[in-house]
Amino acid sequence: MKRIHQRLIHRRRFLQAAGLAASPFIVPESVFGSGQKAAPSERITVAHIGVGGLGRMVFSWTQQVKEAQSVAVADCFKSRRNGIAAACKGKAYLDYREILQRDDIDAVLIVTPDHWHVPIALEACKAKKHTHVAKPLGLSLGQNAACRKAFAESGLTFQYGTQQRSLPHCWKGCELVRRGVIGAITALEVDAPNGGAGGSTQEVPLPADLGEDGYAMWTGPAAKRPYTNDRCRPNGTYWIYDYSIGYLAGWGAHPLDIMVWGSDADLSGTMTVEGTAEIPVKGLYDCVYNWNMNIRFGAVPFTFKTGGDRTRFIGETGWIEVRRGAGLEGGDPNIWGTNAESKGLSASDPKLLQIPLGDKEPMLKRTANANHIDDFIHSIKSGEQPGSTLKDALRSDNISHLCDIAVRTQSAVQFDPLEQKLIAPTKEQLAIANRTI
Questions:
Q1: Per CATH, which fold does 2-164 belong to?
Q2: Residue 6 pLDDT
Q3: Residues 69-95: tens digit of each pLDDT
Q4: CA distances to 3, 5, 137, 347, 394 from 306, in Å
């Protein structure tokens, strides 16, 4: 539990540095930037669906984008939606569907608990809204497939919320690997922070700030459960299986995304996934934790386990490791871009990191700055793909779901990464793969 406490302290300090950890009624002027907004005709109108901790950070990043205009906010907690709506002089809603009905809104930023990510994204797609979805993606392989199908021919911009694709040190590490400086990939290693057990199961009255209507909206497609102090807040939002598959995806999304950004090893052949983990049997939390997964991408071995937050690419001639969170002190993405490289990149030979990258066209998209919402808005305007795509979101998120299936069925799982289908699944594997909550 010490590690969990340390991560919560880090997240709290992160929000404080962004000026967003205090009362949700108060949003400091600093989040709105010092520059002028673009002319109204040049702006993309944006609505924010979910403005909890991460949602407030995404809101602050949006205010730094000259061509974005926040006009509406939906959240289940009254103080959150009213506070952020007042800050941007927009309208507050309990029900996100009222936002999707507005013809004057171009794009939505979905930063809700995980179980709402795909359901709202599917409705946003029907409403013809460009869509940003916080990581992880869906609650199952089936949800992910539905999201892929909906957006495939929509003509809409979809950005996945793995902001490390706008961080220079992550781009550099993956670009070097893509350029073959360590030769062909022979093995991969990913560590992600662990989940945990516990959480109060004692029913308590609903807080007035949420209320019956807010709790019904918060629960949404999930089963209605008695309200407890740990249910609608971290770590409940991350570690309850009704709403998430835990840090397998909730945190694994970051280093797994780096892995698929830097290499196509996961597409090289049949995936075979097996391993060990624990599932709590007491308390509120019931997602997989203490996992240690052994996976093969065709002939390439891959280990995925609990630990820090790192991705190591091992090649024929050496290795490069990317740690996305290293050096990300403070809430300003542009500060991240200047101090992370020395802390966030390492290699078997430091000279590998000094190879010039300016002599060729980049193999991977390099964004204009470290604010990935800026990339989202400019992708909408240009019609180009953002740096963090739905296609790659499926690749990384599906790995997390395969791990969850393997642990819960205590069996090896095989998956065709090109067809994105399970191979000869058992009934138990299919049931988890297609769960809708």
A1: Rossmann fold (3.40.50)
A2: 42
A3: 999 999 999 999 999 999 999 999 999
A4: 11, 16, 20, 21, 21
Q: Where are the domains of the chain?
A: 2-164, 167-196+245-367+390-433
Q: Distance from first CA to last CA of the chain, Å, rounded? A: 28
Q: Would you state the pLDDT for residue 330?
A: 60
| Backbone Cα Rg of the chain | 21
What pLDDT score was predicted for residue 209?
98
Give, to the nearest 10 degrees, the angle between helix 2-17 and helix 53-63: 30
Residue with tokens 């049931």: 431
Low-confidence residues in the chain, pLDDT < 50? 1-25
Contacts (Cβ under 8 Å, ≥6 apart) of 201: 228, 283, 284
* Chain center to CA of 131: 13
| Residues 305, 303: Cα–Cα separation, whole Å | 6
> Is 167-196+245-367+390-433 the same fold as 2-164?
no
What DSSP state is assigned to residue 154?
T
Residue 379 identity (one-letter amino acid) = S
Strand partners, 274: 294
Torsion angle in degrees (nearest 10) through CA of 44, 47, 50, 56: 50
Distance CA 342, CA 338 (A): 9
Q: Whole-angstrom Cα distance, residue 101 to residue 182?
A: 51
CATH number corresponding to 167-196+245-367+390-433: 3.30.360.10
Q: Which is nearest to 139 in space by CA: 401, 408, 420, 414?
A: 401
